[in-house]
Known about the structure:
This protein has 162 residues and is mostly beta strands. It contains no helices and 14 strands. It has two domains: 2-68, Sandwich (Immunoglobulin-like); 79-160, Macroglobulin (MG2) domain (Immunoglobulin-like), CATH 2.60.40.
Amino acid sequence: WTAALNTVVFTNTSANAETYEWDFGDGNTSTAANPIHVYAQPGVYTVTLRVRNRCSTNSVARIQTIEVDFVSTREPEEVTFARVVPNPSTGAFALQVTVRQPLIGRVALLDARGRLLETRTEALPPGEHVIRFDAQPLNAGVYLLHLHTPSGTLVRRVVITP
Length: 162
């Protein structure tokens, strides 16, 4: 799948499928092979694709969790400083942030294709904070850390090396 703001283009990779049943996780569905769906709200959605063919009455389901974000072009005004250390990383890494006012932020780790790998909510009082991540389960590559706040979204890149 690919996404642009709240519009997601889903690409079916099923072999020999004849019918498709997409559930977008927001109450909407589609029977198209490669649907385009517009989400009304930002959030994390579990998308399910069920495929069937006439050789079998069984259905095969593929489930993917995605994060849809109406990306803000401005960084959050509550955040005065943010960086990822160490970067590049071979093990653990952290998002260091300094906030000027209390906030509840959602931190999301995405791979280079935009797939959501981890999400958590952090209550951050004013001051300096370190939000730690374990890179051991990650393959070498480029990842994105998003910090979503009421006033915007901060994005930082992290490189994982072997």
